[in-house]
């Protein structure tokens, strides 16, 4: 049984940290781990491997204490509260805790930042980033499951043409391109994201409007 557990966990570790997986040496702060839960829940879900160092070496954990803190993070420090699944694996004589976090049905999921303010986090590659205000509105809109008619204004068609030619643009860039206000531009982007024709990506700390992948 331990051999099977070891192979399974080691195969996961070989994947490294990515959009759907994060290593945690230990859990010492429920608020901090809540930000990881928020980030995965606002994306398409993911997992934590607790008791694993950043380099993939297995350190092991005291599973009962870790599970308690993770459940506290999910229930007390996530808004709305999230359900997580914890499972302990015995590997190399040590306990590794796998925490599965599902994509949230209701978004955005918020967690407190270091000063205690509630923020929305999102998982990009192997990082948890604070979502932009526009991205938060996109998450809210998508969570409402509204039907949106596929029709575009002249400004929106100009944006789509720009994205085809150049790949990406910031919200401010869209405003300057089409000479529209912040409110109009943001509403346009949120609606087009809901249509599934554009998406938001992050590059060098900037939130970019890009064409949605087919």
Overview of this protein structure:
α4 packs across α7 and α6 (171-178) crosses α7 (182-195). Helices cover 40% and strands 25% of the residues. The chain has helices at 2-14, 30-42, 63-76, 133-143, 154-166, 171-178, 182-195; strands spanning 21-24, 46-50, 84-91, 94-101, 110-112, 118-124, 127-130, 168-169, 198-203, 206-211. β1 (21-24), α2 (30-42) and β2 (46-50) form a beta-alpha-beta unit. The termini are far apart. The mean pLDDT is 94. The protein has a four-stranded mixed β-sheet with strand order 1-2-4-3, sandwiched between helices. Strands 5-6-7 form a three-stranded antiparallel β-sheet. The chain is elongated, with a radius of gyration of 20 Å. The protein is an alpha+beta fold and 214 residues long.
Which secondary structure elements does this structure contain, and how are they paired or packed?
Blueprint: H1 2-14, E1 21-24, H2 30-42, E2 46-50, H3 63-76, E3 84-91, E4 94-101, E5 110-112, E6 118-124, E7 127-130, H4 133-143, H5 154-166, E8 168-169, H6 171-178, H7 182-195, E9 198-203, E10 206-211
Parallel strand pairs: 1-2
Antiparallel strand pairs: 2-4, 3-4, 5-6, 6-7, 8-10, 9-10
Order of helices and strands: HEHEHEEEEEHHEHHEE
Low-confidence stretches: none
Contiguous helical run count? 7
Distance N to C terminus: 42 Å
Give me the secondary-structure category.
alpha+beta
By DSSP, the count of extended strands is 10
Overall 3D form: elongated
Radius of gyration: 20 Å
Instruction: Tell me the major beta sheet.
Output: 4 strands, mixed
User: How would you state the average pLDDT, rounded?
Assistant: 94
β-strand amount: 15-25%
Helix content: 40-55%
Biggest sheet strand order reads 1-2-4-3
């Amino acid at each position: 049984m331990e051999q099977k557990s070891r192979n399974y966990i080691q195969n996961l570790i070989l994947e490294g940290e990515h959009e759907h997986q994060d290593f945690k040496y230990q859990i010492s702060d429920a608020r901090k781990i809540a930000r990881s839960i928020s980030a995965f829940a606002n994306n398409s879900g993911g997992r934590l491997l607790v008791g694993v160092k950043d380099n993939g070496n297995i350190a092991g954990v005291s599973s009962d204490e870790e599970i308690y803190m993770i459940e506290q993070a999910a229930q007390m420090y996530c808004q709305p509260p999230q359900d997580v699944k914890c499972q302990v694996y015995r590997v190399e004589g040590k306990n590794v805790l796998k925490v599965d976090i599902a994509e949230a049905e209701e978004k955005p999921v918020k967690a407190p930042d270091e000063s205690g303010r509630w923020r929305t986090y999102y998982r990009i590659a192997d990082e948890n980033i604070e979502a932009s205000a526009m991205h938060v509105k996109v998450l809210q809109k998508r969570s409402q499951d509204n039907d949106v008619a596929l029709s575009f204004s002249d400004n929106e068609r100009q944006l789509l043409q720009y994205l085809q030619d150049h790949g990406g643009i910031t919200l401010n860039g869209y405003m300057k391109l089409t000479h529209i206000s912040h409110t109009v531009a943001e509403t346009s982007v949120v609606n087009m994201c809901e249509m599934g024709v554009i998406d938001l990506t992050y590059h060098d700390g900037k939130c970019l409007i890009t064409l949605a992948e087919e």
